[in-house]
Amino acid sequence: MNCIKCNMPLENVYVCPHCGHVDKVAKKIIYSSNWHYNQGLAKAKVRDLSGAVTSLSQSLKYNKRNIDARNLLGLIYYQMGEIVAALSEWVISVHFQERNNIAADYIQAIQNNPAKLKAANKVIQKYNLALSYMQENNADLAIIELKRVVNMSPTYIRAYQLLGLLYMQRKQYAAARKVLMRAVKVDRNNMTTLRYLKEVNRLHGKPEKNQHGRKEEFMQINDPNPIVIEEGSGQNYADYNTGFLSFINILIGIVIGAAVIWLLIVPSITKTKASEYNQAVVEYSAQISERNKNIDDLQNQITDLKSQLAQYETTASNTVDDAGASEQKLIEAASNYLQQNLQDAGMLIAEIEPAAITNAQEKKIYNIIKEATKSSVTETLYANGKDSFDKKDYVGAIDGMTKVLRMDDSYSYAVFYMGRSYQLLGDTGNAAGYYKRLIQSYPNSDLIDDARKYLNQLGDTSSIDAVDISSSDTSDTTDSSDNSSDSSDNSSDSGDNSNDSSDNTGDNTGDGLSDNGDGSGE
After folding, report:
1. Which helix (H) or strand (E) holds 328?
2. Which regions does the record annotate with the repeat TPR (predicted)?
């Protein structure tokens, strides 16, 4: 913001230091920003970290140069386990105020502790790996990784929330409540955590006490009609002869019964048992055969699943490593940028694929460093790529020119040498694409005629404006185009006249282009 009277810049002040004018709008903005900062500070003191983040973000919306608010926001992110977000805020803070800024001390403290930085990287990688497992519906491995994350970073709110959500999905409500309560101890008023806790209480409820006490272990039964045995009053009578005969009859019956059982029933029982035994043997043999077959099938399934798991782990590890490598390079680039090592910072930025950066704060830092270092590293990157091309290292040339285009997409020479490298590697599709891009996007480039010539050699002249190549005398037209359109190609004309439209002709003409130092070519 500038003074409305003398147009002098106003930074965190509403009284112009040049003319003394009091800008009421600037005063209101600064007061509003400071008020929200005080609210955020008060919430942070009572561990309402989510509320503090909201208030401090609002403060920075009013005044992005509020250094105290930005530094405090970085500290809160650090306390919540968001180390990358914290570093982003501190880097921006140092960008606005380099001297007397405690954010520089915070960054230096992290950089001076490689173990801490490595642990932070490990936490991010394991959290991303857990997300990958969840996308593959592998909740068990995701829970294992999240447990490791919270052990390494006990204040990582997002890890607690995700772990609690997984426990809720598996209906382990007691474990989910325990994990979410740990998150509440770090951030008391986090809306996501409180919403999960409310859902756990709704689904599981709280244990109720037994109001009736313990049940009796033994019960006394009162029989209303007890059995009473009375003594007889008559005389005892015994008939010895009758008793002896009864004993003989019983003995004879036992003998006859034993004979019947032995002669009739026992053979039938034995035959039945033998038949049942044989049937059981057949059934058990069939079951054993079926189970052996099932075991073989399960073993094959286990082998296939192990193979798939190894592939998934390899894919997830590569994805996490790529994301972690991009974040690591961005942090190193920011460190070099803060130390005014613009050349090293720019070279690191050129190695980062922009699509790998998804966080808004990281993207902002990436753009700041890229704009600050583009002019100092583009020529160096182009020289490295051209040197690889001259040495016939076309893969290295493609890598070098790709870095040039990441830093400056208007560098027409880099587009041309990308097409030549792909052509010499035999990738005609990519080669034709880069030649067309040069012709359509850089109409004033001095490489237009060469691009048209090589595109004609590939046999693809579609979507090219103002291309007139006669099919009756192709070789004569190509030779004359080489001699008239490119003044820097004199050293290779003899090679064009002695060879036909093969890769050797492309080497003599394309490699002989002289660099005029102006990468845009326009």
Report:
1. helix 266-338
2. 157-190, 412-445
Q: How far apart are CA 252 and CA 274, in angstroms?
A: 32
Whether the Cβ atoms of residue 522 and residue 516 lie closer than 8 Å to each other = no
For the chain, give percent helix, strand, coil, nearest 5. Answer: 70, 0, 25
- CA 185, chain centre distance (Å): 27
pLDDT of residue 16: 61
Residue 244: CB atoms within 10 A of its CB come to: 10
Domain assignments of the chain as residue spans, ordered by start: 24-112, 122-204, 247-296, 410-510
| The CATH number, out of the four listed (3.30.2350.10, 3.10.20.90, 1.20.1050.10, 1.25.40.10), of the domain defined by the range 122-204 | 1.25.40.10
Residue 133: other Cβ atoms inside 10 A: 22
**Nearest partner of 520 among 383, 421, 414, 406, judged by Cα:** 414
CB proximity list for 520: less than 8 A, separation 6 or greater = 410, 411, 412, 413, 442, 445
From the options 1.20.272.10, 1.10.8.60, 1.10.3720.10, 1.25.40.10, give the CATH code of 24-112.
1.25.40.10
- Number of other CB atoms surrounding residue 440 within 10 Å: 12
Concatenated DSSP letters for 141-195?
HHHHHHHHHHHH-TT-HHHHHHHHHHHHHTT-HHHHHHHHHHHHHH-TT-HHHHH
